[in-house]
């Protein structure tokens, strides 16, 4: 399924929880961690259980971000989720595969790792090799704080970490979701970040507000031009192949078997988006 837009929903916010399932995002991260104050953790856990009891939309992935097992709340979060219908557990601040082992020993659900520590970035390849891992989500706020970087609109300082983690995810064939755009209400900045994440190779962007969903959905879906080009590349390659050749030229650029494979991926994603497998 497409993963263009992944919205954090604080489990302590009843209105947001109620609204979330009808929002057109591809995935939700129902959050028990940083969006929930310590005093509200228990209540949030109970509200989350009730929200998960309501049937979700099949086209919308429902993940739950627990607190770390090294906090006073993590073990209880996992225990509370035992009987709940969710599609996966997001583990925060993963430094390496041992952090996933600890969670994997307590749940059979698919795992997602937040890459948001310096160690986590440096060990991303080991983490992404974990057999229970479905994907990574970049935590650019925590990572930026730990590194001590100065956030800029072009995200210049965090790009190496984003790319390193993305390479690790791709090397192990799992999904990769970009970090959030904190600038609520700054549409231009959000669009630029979405385009940057897409160009780096991410599958989608994590989001903090419903108003950010449309930009992510549009940017991470193939455009009409990309779909047209993919079709023309496939057709041109099939024509030269029938003549016993392995290279076509479309719009002045070579097309070989690998480009055709990429073109088929574009069309598959377009079909999934069009067919409502996404929101
Ligand atoms: C930032 C917010 C606190 C703003 O909330 P609010 O003041 O309620 O905004 P609005 O009045 O504009 O909301 C309009 C309606 O939309 C609903 N809403 C708002 N946000 C969400 C949401 N995230 N999911 C679902 N629904 C949402 C409101 O309830 C309103 O509904 P209604 O009244 O019925 O019309 C708030 O947006 C928010 O809390 N956002 C999430 C913040 C969060 O999750 N932060 C933690 C994750 S980010 C992070 O840390 C990533 C990583 O770990 C890292 O390190 O980088
Ligand atoms: Mg974080």
Automatic annotation (TrEMBL):
Key word Metal-binding present: yes
Descriptive protein name: CoA ester lyase
By sequence similarity, the record places it as follows: Belongs to the HpcH/HpaI aldolase family.
A GO molecular-function annotation: lyase activity
Q: Which organism is it from?
A: Limimaricola litoreus
- Residues in HpcH/HpaI aldolase/citrate lyase domain copies: 4-210
Q: What is the lineage of its organism?
A: Bacteria, Pseudomonadati, Pseudomonadota, Alphaproteobacteria, Rhodobacterales
* Sequence positions that bind Mg(2+): 116, 142
Q: Which domain of life is it from?
A: Bacteria
Question: Which GO BP terms, alphabetically?
Answer: oxaloacetate metabolic process
Question: Which keywords does the record carry?
Answer: Lyase, Magnesium, Metal-binding
